[in-house]
UniProtKB/TrEMBL annotation:
Name of protein: YXWGXW repeat-containing protein
Endpoints of the signal sequence: 1-25
Polar residues bias: start-end ranges: 232-246
Xref: InterPro entries: YXWGXW_rpt
Annotated segments matching region Disordered: 210-246, 295-318
Pfam family, one: WXXGXW
TM ranges: none
Composition skew (Basic and acidic residues), residue ranges: 297-318
Source organism per UniProt: Tunturiibacter lichenicola
Entry keyword set: Signal
Amino acid sequence: MKLTNLVRKFVVGAALALLPAASFAGVFISVGFAPPVLPVYTQPICPGDGYLWNPGYWAYGDEGYYWVPGVWVRPPQVGLLWTPGYWGWGGGAYLFHAGYWGPHVGFYGGVNYGFGYGGVGFGGGRWVGNSFAYNTSVVNVNRTVIHNTYVDNTVINHTTVYNRTSFNGGTGGIQARPSAQEASFARENHVAPTAEQQSHVQMAHADRSNFASVNGGHPQNAAFSRPGVRAANQQQRIGQGVQSGQLTAHETGNLEHRDASINHQAAADRAANGGHLTAQEHQQINQRQNNVSRSINNDKHNANTQEHPHAEAREGHR
């Protein structure tokens, strides 16, 4: 048994090393146990025209399954749609079928990723000429900024807790098979994930808090507005806390001060290294961002609010 696990880990490691080059080509990794259920999360607002939603999913790394946050990304060219990757049971293991860009959305295991990806096709929007039109009944778009929208309430936005299975086939898996149309889509020319998407996956893998062994299947950062902008996403979370009244002035000031300190450290490190962060520096920055992320969550869900900062006041008089 130990030898089998060792061999599997070797295969997994080799597959991960090839991820940027092969991640659009089909199955690239196999694991002996199923991924966790999909977490429930809120979709960040679309950052601008032309961004398409990539739902979050469980990938596999050297410490087990880790969460790749959902994110808005730009497609490699006009007219392409994203088919999400999925885990499927076959050959005595769970196989990962990687996502890809193509003219149509193909089979993604019947997995209900939500936000237009209800298990079959995509109802979150469509290309109209050279512009992408967003279905605001299932995706989070500010219509005062993005005007190319429509409403189709027949598309069901499955993001509730009753359907979060993350894999196809096998015991407890989704029992879906490709339709004839989806099979034909699989034979179309596909385009690899962009460099931005690949970097997003690598950054997710570098963040230990994304591993299920650390977060228990509940990632702290389940979705981002854009790849590589974690600091901006945390600022957005702080702003939401202020707007909702969940963060007091003291809590907000503390979080803002810590965020500014992280930004200062990152800028200083980049200036000293030709505009880049070393692996160690990136890990340090990421750990500090993890700490702030936990504080944002704790502060937003404690007894203190803008209207009733009483517990915070008592804490200050100890």
